[in-house]
Structures are given as structure tokens and as C-alpha cells.
Amino acid sequence: MGSLLSKTKSPKPTTTPESKPSNMSFTHFSNAQSSFKPPLIANENAYLGDIATSEPNDPTSPISAGFYRLEKGTPLVYEYTYHEMKIIVDGEFDISDESGQKVHAVKGDVFYFPKGSKITFTTETFGLGFFVGQRKEGAA
Predict the structure, then answer these.
(1) CATH of the domain at 129
(2) DSSP letters along 52-97, please?
(3) Is 134 within 8 Å of 96 (Cβ atoms)?
(4) Range of the domain at 87
């Protein structure tokens, strides 16, 4: 996320037996939602890790994707330095911004966070989101 740096190894992607490794092959991250454990990035309860990036194929306008997990505890206030989309895949978040907008987010909710937005994430239990951000890998 924005000013927090995440250095983590991505899970090992797989390709289909018929495909040949190349920049144009798709990659598959089997069971990533439950098997990938993002590293701690802030406070005692905020975890984030990239699992995929388009950077090798498009270094000028890369997108990176991964998981963000927040446990009950300290709220995370984050200022986006890039555009991001997030879908809540498990648990719940309370998400608010500087304009006063507040949402109790649950599984299936989708968000767009524009570059420059300052977002506060909290949870009474835990929340897990899958994100795609317009940034280089590890630049969160």
C-alpha cells in the first residue's frame, strides 16, 4: 500500500502442461486465497503481499495484485499513491475516508480507491481483500 513497502516472495505460479514458459503465458496461483500468507506491514495487525505483477511485460504501466489482511486492533490509515481496486473475499472491514464516507464492507463488496485518497481500515474481527493496484511490485 502507498508508503508502506512489502518485500515478500510470491507463491509459485503454475502453467498448464501444454503451455511453454514465455511472457505471453498465463500464470495460475492455486488456492492463493487460503495458502498465501502476506507479511506484516504495519502496526501489529496489518498484512499485505503482492502475488502477481505485469511489470516484466509492461514496465512503464505495471499493475500488481495481492492480498491485504487486517486483524482486530489498530486501525490502518493509508494514503494511496496509485489507483487501486479491491474486492473483499472474506471477513469484514469498516472503511472510511476524509470526506466522511463510511462503509461496512463484507465478502463480495468491490472498492475503487483513487490515487490521493486517504482511507482508514478497521475491523472488529478480521478482513481479507484481494487488490489490483496501478504500481510496481513491492511499491505498496
Answers:
(1) 2.60.120.10
(2) EESTTT-TTS--EEEEEEEESSS-EEEE-SS-EEEEEEEEEEEEEE
(3) no
(4) 38-133
39 and 104 in contact (C-beta within 8 Å)?
no
Report pLDDT digits (tens) over 56-65.
Answer: 999 999 999 9
C-alpha cell at 130: 484481494
Residue 24 lies in a domain: no
Q: What is the pTM of this model?
A: 0.81
Asked whether residue 14 is assigned to any structural domain, the reply reads no
Q: Are 6 and 41 in contact (CB under 8 A)?
A: yes
CB within 8 A of 103, min separation 6: which ones? 94, 95, 96, 109, 111
With cut-offs at 50, 70 and 90, classify the pLDDT of residue 14: low
Instruction: Please check whether residue 22 lies inside any domain of the structure.
Output: no
109 DSSP assignment: -
Return left, alpha or beta for 118; rule: phi > 0 is left, psi -120 to 50 is alpha, else beta. beta
| Cross-strand pairs, 71 | 126
Overall domain count for the chain = 1
